[in-house]
Amino acid sequence: MQWVKKGRDTLLHKGFEVEGDFSEIVEEPLYKDAADITKVLLDDYESGKLSEIYVIYTNFKNTVVHDPVLLKLLPISKEDLLQPETTESEGPRALMNYSPNEDEVLDAIIPKYISSVIYGGLMQSVASENGARMTAMDSATSNAEELIDKATYSTTELVRVQLLKSLLRLWRSQCHRITTGNGRRRGRRKS
Hints:
mainly alpha, 58% helix, 9% strand
């Protein structure tokens, strides 16, 4: 899609390095595609190649409104974990006990969470693109209908004007014949 290439080209123009190109999946994104992207991102994050992971997508509100979204996925800061009613002195409250342990649970949850956010972003972007296309097609259809109406009106007027000119010429010729005496009626000749 053109808008994906445009985004990539804008990042390159601004001096960012684009490591991967997943533009082929945006037509019909699958959850597996999001999981594949997540694997690449997490591998690069764990190896230290990436220090932060953000997702940027277009949030679909309706066919006319599409808002850009920038969401930080990793690293998760302490402020991100604190609930609004907790303070730093209290520390985060444990919502549940983890079994097996917290690290194993997070190792399972974080990739699923990131995959879900990426997949959701892909779906929101597709919905926004389709909404923009629908709006553009509706506008083009309305404009075409207006042009057709104008052309039909113009054609009808042209035919009417030509008919009136023909009638006027006929009327003038009849008036000319009558005034010059050549306006005799032709009748049947009797044999």
